[in-house]
Design a protein that fits this description.
7-stranded mixed β-sheet, 17 helices, 485 residues, binds S-adenosylmethionine, 6-stranded antiparallel β-sheet, single chain, 23 strands
Length: 485
């Protein structure tokens, strides 16, 4: 049996976790289960820092076509819960042996790569109906972000970016090479407060600078949620003459913004890449596997939610499908016998989301080149990152990779892409911490595979750099991509 403990930093210091005590009930339960081949078992120990997440404290993950099994435990939740841990291990092993896992859950989709799970439809639903959700919870989405609000609202880093932009523009102007139209593109705008911070600072600094750049500025806001764009437009209404907005998928920006090729001086992105669909790849015994998942509700939660909307658990899947297709207001119109008004529909949505979990399994890959990270980006790019010397499981950041690769061609030769986000900046960070997925209110969060993006950027002729965000205690990293000199 292999035991892989990832959160090494939790094992020492003032608040060290008692690893031996926490794992004792796991091993006792394993020892009691004579039918399990322990030589084919890996126990992986994570510390899932997200209070709301898609995992049970104890989970069993098969390797498809193999007798290997992974028992995954969340150290944060099993520590101090010996009885429930022992019984969770015993019942997971029993269910696996008897094929009875299905009886304990309501499965909502077929197995598939996590980037295609319906959790992403929930994510889009959240941004598409943000106001309904925020009204129900009484909290805005920013309070769930690291630090309680978007770091993109910090004034000083914004001013630094703008001053650097002015320096580039001054240089081009001296050589009579500065275009009349000065394009800045923001992808994933949320409530528009970071755009507001940026535009306010820009206008003020331009006034001091005296070159009239503000009147030449075209600030383009792109988001896949028309609703979010409307909120953002209202927030920046003072700058309405300088702002245009586009409904677009950040994964395919050139579909609507192809006319901007080589024209954009700054692409500005914050807290978006960590919100885009991603797969995970795991090496197990030096062989690469794709993590497949399927969304489900534990049986007791399914029964409770079904009762709350006057139906049976069997009918919940159909209601969830309708919710994702129609949104809460139209759902209330379509099935008033279950949810009489929008408020009740949002309550239903929140209850499903709170209970939603991802069951996982590992599917062997027959060569990384058979796996596509994004259109035109082969899985082979992951090879150097996976060579950490031991088993590793990492995010592919498919959505971020696609978005990044498609956005770079929009940049002016003196342009820059700047992105504030949760980045893993070294493949070894996947060995020592849990990088998602977690739930932020109604949305999904996963750390972004920085080394992979750097690799993609380098192949396209860009220098990619990572700098810790300039705010004490921030877990955000700023990635910049500039055309290589
Ligand atoms: C966490 S919010 C970040 C908002 C803002 N940039 C900030 O820092 O507060 C994520 C934003 O990305 C948008 N978004 C998520 N996935 C997207 C996609 N595939 N295409 C376009 N926008 C997307 C959401 O609608 C939302 O506005």
């Amino acid at each position: 049996m292999l035991v892989d403990v990832k959160p090494a930093a939790r094992l020492r210091g003032k608040n060290a976790v008692d690893l031996t005590g926490a794992l004792a009930p796991v091993f006792t339960a394993l020892a009691a289960c004579a039918a399990t081949d322990l030589s084919r078992l890996r126990v992986t120990v994570d510390w899932v820092q997200y209070r709301h997440n898609f995992r049970a404290p104890v989970e069993l993950r098969p390797v498809v076509g193999d007798t290997q099994l992974e028992l995954a435990v969340d150290l944060r939740r099993i520590a101090g819960a010996p009885d429930s841990t022992a019984s969770a291990v015993a019942s997971a092993l029993h269910a696996h042996r008897t094929g009875g896992a299905g009886a304990r859950q309501l499965t909502l989709e077929e197995w598939g790569p996590t980037s295609r799970s319906l959790i992403w439809a929930f994510n889009a639903l959240y941004w598409g109906h943000l106001r309904d959700w925020e009204e129900a919870t009484g909290q805005d989405y920013e309070s769930a972000l690291p630090g309680g609000r978007s770091d993109a609202r910090e004034d000083e880093p914004v001013r630094t970016t703008i001053r650097e932009l002015f320096a580039v523009w001054d240089g081009l102007a001296e050589r009579r090479a500065l275009p009349e139209e000065l394009y800045v593109l923001e992808l994933g705008v949320g409530n528009g407060h970071q755009a507001r911070t940026w535009l306010d600072a820009f206008r003020e600094l331009d006034h001091e600078h005296g070159r009239g750049y503000y009147r030449r500025l075209h600030y383009l806001m792109g988001d896949y949620s028309a609703h979010v764009l409307e909120l953002a437009r209202a927030t920046v209404s003072e700058h309405a003459e300088r702002v245009s907005s586009f409904v677009l998928d950040a994964l395919r920006p050139t579909t609507s913004l192809g006319f901007l090729r080589f024209k954009v001086f700054l692409v500005y992105i914050s807290n978006v890449y960590d919100n885009l669909p991603t797969d995970e790849i795991a090496t197990i015994g030096q062989r690469e596997h794709l993590v497949e998942s399927r969304a489900h509700l534990p049986a007791d939660a399914a029964a409770a939610v079904a009762a709350s909307v006057h139906t049976t658990p069997d009918a919940l899947g159909g209601l969830v499908e309708k919710l994702l297709r129609l949104g809460p207001a139209l759902l209330a119109e379509a099935v008033p016998q279950h949810v009489p008004d929008t408020r009740a529909a949002v309550e239903f949505w929140r209850a499903i989301w709170a209970a939603l979990r991802l069951q996982e399994r590992y599917v062997p890959l027959h060569g990384l080149d058979t796996y596509a990270i994004a259109p035109g980006i082969s899985g082979e790019l992951l090879r150097p990152l996976l060579a950490t010397g031991s088993d590793v499981r990492m995010h592919v950041a498919n959505g971020a990779a696609a978005s990044f690769a498609e956005t770079l061609p929009l940049l002016h030769p003196y342009g820059r892409l700047q992105c504030h986000d949760l980045f893993a900046t070294d493949p070894h960070q996947y060995r020592d911490g849990f990088r998602g997925p977690g739930k932020y209110d109604g949305s999904v969060v996963n750390w972004v595979n920085g080394p992979l993006l750097a690799h993609i950027g380098a192949r396209k002729g860009f220098d990619v750099a990572f700098t810790p965000f300039a705010r004490a205690g921030s877990s955000i990293t700023t990635m910049t991509a500039d055309v290589r000199d």
